[in-house]
Design goal:
By secondary structure, the protein is of the alpha+beta class. The protein contains twelve helices and nine strands. The structure holds flavin-adenine dinucleotide.
Length: 380
């Protein structure tokens, strides 16, 4: 087992880290306040091959795999989780990668890896989140088109994307509820697609989140992901097995960023005439943050490495995602506490980290959903 990264991966980390420091840091606070998606920064990152870096070179990506993508995600999230979500400019494409036709891969993966398009993954509905198979958006075949009607909720990039991979019911009469759905690619400029940006999120406010309505939206049947209807639920599960690892990398990055800021602050801030770093309680907090970051990082790299080697371990993925969310929330909380009252003011980044961290226990599977997956699979 080799824990040493290749020179290529080390360079990738440096490039991503420098990019985040230079491009995110100066504007992260403003974008958070204004709830503004940084499209120009997304474009720049695409130009450097940092968006869709996991996409194989034959489809225009950098071909650094999911481990490479995790490293970029980690470095981005270390500076600002909201802005780091420009990396989710390929969200949804993971399903095309695993289950799409060759033609779909050439067309859609190339567009996002070249910075020509932003994608989204539209699964959640107002009445169906954790219960993915409860999605009711309907796609009815009409000649060589599908006609789509329904609503999606909380869709990342919903208001800025060019296309979305959408979970729809195509086979309502299937005996098993897991065989009723298909994934269909819906271009967002098609008549009847209405995106409404959601305002007032607790955190990741530079990331775009929208509610989507489909009103008699027509797409060609060739937009069905893969070749067979009724596979959508299984394709979605395979998709989540990939994207959960990337979300876990967000957790490591945020936690490391909180630790960086805490270390810097406790060395500078004085109380009772000495730096607060000299107090044992402070040291205990710093050490505990570092322990959790390191343990989580190892889980993330192992999960990503498995994925790159086509070994899917849903228990490991769920453990990783659960632990990453816990670590991020834990570290952001300690970082605020170590900043005292200043940690509560939005001038200090740790306040934003604290608000941002919570999403990591909610999206891409709530922490309870991860626990269920782990237990169910262990107890079969
Ligand atoms: C900012 C943001 C971005 C998002 N981006 C996307 C996106 O890009 N695409 C997308 O499709 N979705 C997205 N989501 C949706 C997100 O994945 C869902 O909100 C999440 O899966 C939970 O679904 P829900 O909100 O319907 O909660 P529910 O499923 O209603 O859950 C409510 C509570 O009940 C618990 N619960 C549910 N079922 C069980 C059970 N069987 N046993 C025990 N507890 C249970 C949950 O854990 C939770 O605590 C996003 C959400 C947010 C907030």
């Amino acid at each position: 087992m080799d824990f040493e990264f290749s020179d290529e991966m080390k360079m990738l980390r440096e490039t991503a880290g420098d990019f985040a420091k230079n491009e995110f840091e100066p504007i992260a606070q403003d974008l958070d306040r204004e709830e503004k998606y940084p499209k120009d920064v997304w474009k720049k990152a695409s130009g450097l091959g940092l968006i869709g870096a996991w996409i194989p070179e034959e489809y225009g990506g950098s071909g650094v795999g999911f481990l490479g993508n995790a490293i970029i995600t980690e470095e981005f999230s270390r500076v600002d989780l909201g802005m780091s979500l420009i990396i989710a400019g390929t969200f949804g494409c993971e399903a095309i990668y695993w289950a799409g036709t060759e033609e779909q891969k050439k067309r859609y993966l190339s567009q996002v890896s070249q910075g020509e398009a932003i994608s989204a993954g539209a699964f959640t509905e107002p009445d169906a989140g954790t219960d993915v198979a409860g999605a009711r958006t309907r796609a009815v075949k009409d000649g060589d088109e599908y006609v789509i009607n329904g609503n999606k909720m909380f869709i990342t990039n919903g208001d800025v994307c060019d296309f979305m991979v959408t979970l729809c019911v195509t086979n309502p009469d299937a005996e098993k509820r897991y065989k009723k759905h298909s994934l269909i690619i819906v271009e967002s400029d098609r008549p009847g697609v209405i995106a409404t940006k959601i305002h007032g999120k607790m955190g990741i406010r530079a990331s775009d989140t929208a509610e989507i309505s489909f009103e008699d939206v027509r797409v060609p049947v060739s937009n069905l992901v893969g070749e067979t209807e009724g596979q959508g639920f299984y394709q979605a599960m395979q998709f989540f097995d990939t994207t959960r690892i990337m979300v876990s990398a967000q957790g490591v990055g945020l936690a490391q960023g909180a630790l960086d800021k805490a270390i810097q602050y406790v060395k500078e801030r004085k109380a009772f005439g000495v730096p607060i770093a000299s107090f044992q309680i402070t040291q205990q907090k710093i050490a505990e943050m570092a322990m959790r970051v390191e343990a989580t990082r190892n889980l993330v790299y192992k999960s990503a490495w498995y994925l790159d080697n086509h070994k899917v371990d849903p228990i490991l993925n769920s453990i990783t995602k659960y632990y990453a969310g816990e670590t991020a929330v834990f570290c952001a909380n300690y970082a605020v506490e170590l900043h005292g009252g200043y940690g509560y003011i939005d001038e200090y980044d740790v306040q934003r980290f604290y608000r941002d961290a919570k999403i990591l226990q909610l999206y891409e599977g709530t922490k309870e959903a991860e626990v269920l997956t782990i237990a169910r699979r262990l107890l079969v």
